## 1
Amino acid sequence: MSAIATLLLKPGKERSLARRHPWVYAGAVASVTGAPGNGALVAVRASDQRFLAWAAYSPGSTIRARCWSFAEADRINADWLAARVDAAVARRRELHESTDALRLVFGEADGLPGLVVDRYGDYLVVQLQAAGVDAHRELLLDTLCRATACPNVFDRSDPALRAREGLDERGGVLRGAAPAEHVPIRELALRYRVDLRRGHKTGFYIDQRDNRRLAGELVPRLRRSLGRAPRVLNCFCYTGGFGIAAACAGAEAVVSIDSSAEALELARGNAALNGLVTQAGAVAPVRLDWRCADVFEQLRTLRAEGQRFDLIVLDPPKFATNQHQVERAARAYKDINLGALRLLEPGGALMSFSCSGAIDVALFQKIVAGAVVDAQADCYLRARLAAGADHPTLMTHPEGEYLKGLLLERA
Ligand code: SAH
């Protein structure tokens, strides 16, 4: 093993690794011996030479190394990497029965830092966003195709994230055929068409599967408690998910808002795909109102129109991408939650989400509580919501937990 380069840490900087946190920041490194290349295997050692971890070296990144393993006896080779992929796929086997759109590999949580793999039917959409996994891309792709029997792999890596790792811009077809313009998927009882090439993330918000299902389950519950079919407002609807789930579950009407005309066009198609639009083009029996607009403004407009809702979903984009944006993001979250609560009927439910990693659950709850106070709308916290089981959070890597939500019930 003498050929393997060594990253020696500064005194005291071994603490986070000793707690099995998988990142080594540039500022923690005292010296590098052995001139490792981008993505090369390194042994990370404490200032007293104690072994801490095997890691992939990223000379251009502030995260200077990402750990593969904390066990000195491990040999980080092709077999080891393939075993990680197989384990990740096996971990999701049960989910495969209810959906053909699921995350198969979730980076650090699956021991493959920087690798994201989402499956959509016969397509694997990958993001290779760290030097270590990029250095082993062929092996990882071969293993993925074998483990899933999926012949097609499409690369949707974020060029900005790759650049931060000193990696060139890449994308497009890596294996098999290019995806059709819209790939059909099934999520529980519902169907959607997904744009793998240009859609958000890898095409679909797979992480919200359980919460879309919950929106569907809330409809009959609200119908019983209110004595009538609920009216639903789906803010930041993207390709329709939450609203379609609610409409199919028997909502009286669904108003969906998004600023993207393209997303709304797909959303309309998805509504039709799920039988929410009759063949003649008329909408029946649920009333669907698609609004291409800014949610911040629409919440005020809907209030001026005198509209009220029994179920409201707020699933905005990431308002804070780093710590510096937290304060401004907090104001934005408060604004939309206040606007939504003002439209919510007594007994109604609000599903409010944040996918900003920089805002933790406690802070998010505080922000929403502030909106509750300002709206003078007493609410119970009925549930804390999170991403589905295919997006696991490693206890030692809390940064992986980005999606959080609150289910509130207005008193
Ligand atoms: N709930 C969706 C995902 C939402 S993603 C689902 O389950 O699939 C966030 C969406 O917010 C994107 O579609 C984006 O176009 C939209 N968006 C971003 N800023 C907006 C704004 N100010 N007003 C309305 N829509 C906005």
## 2
Amino acid sequence: MDIQQKIEKIKEEIKVFDATSDYELESFRIKFLGKKNGILTFLFKELKKFSIQDKKYFGKIINNLKKQVTEKIQLKKLKQQKNIPHFDPTLPGIYKEIGSMHPISILIHRIIELFSKIGFSVVEGPEIEDDWHNFTALNIPPEHPSREMQDTFFLYNNTDSLLRTHTSSVQIRYMKKHVPPFRIISLGKVYRNETISTHSHFMFHQAEGFYIDKKVTFLDLKQTILYLIHSIFGDITKVRFRPSYFPFTEPSAEVDIYFGKTMGWIEIMGCGMIDPKVLKNVNIDSEIYSGFAFGIGIERLSILIYKINDIRIYFENDMNFLRHFQSEF
Ligand code: PHE
């Protein structure tokens, strides 16, 4: 192989070379530029034997090849460096925002804490209900006008599968399976198709409490509600029990809190003594046992605590709003 052929071969080899590791890169360097056996090093030595003219001519070409090899190595090294994340301890850190509890979750935890102090246990119920647990067992038969008050989302075109309109269905599920006495609190989402009301987002949260034992009276109900309201709004808050109607409680009341002259009395919950008919539906003897139940709208309560005027802000995921609650937990 004469020098010209050798050069062509080397050119081609340099051109197609590609290294994926440091080791390959180093072998490439040694192969061509190694002090002892490098191909180009050898050619430089050979040059000495050439005529002046050839020395000049081939010297230039071999020098050029040497340049190509070093350039290729440098380029590869540079590329590798780019792939390694560069760490500069003097640069400012990347700030990751720490999330906080949603105000609704904060209030749910608060309510659980308050009720666990007075012996209530937390239970959960399904959000997809059937007619019996959501309505019929609660003494709301088909065609009862109070079903109108809770415009219902039915699922799969099936009138026996619906999104619960209130957490009172949990009363039925729990009472059917357990023997009194019990004190239960259940919190979760409820769904109503109420486009005109303040709950215009179709979903809101409720807390349902119920207590069954021998000799439970309205006085127990009243003291329990006062305990809740005074714990949240302070001892001197004025509370009023206004007679009302729910098919599943008798007597029934709505509870209002006084928020001063401009706001006046504001309704925050419904409650009452569990109707004997409901107890009968879950096989609890109303001659022996009595109980009370109440249902609170969590968003409603929360807007009063934080003095918020539009309930929809709870569901907008606006960080400027949510950030305010970081210190709460
Ligand atoms: N379930 C009723 C509602 O959603 C509230 C309620 C619960 C009333 C328990 C009385 C007793 O409006």
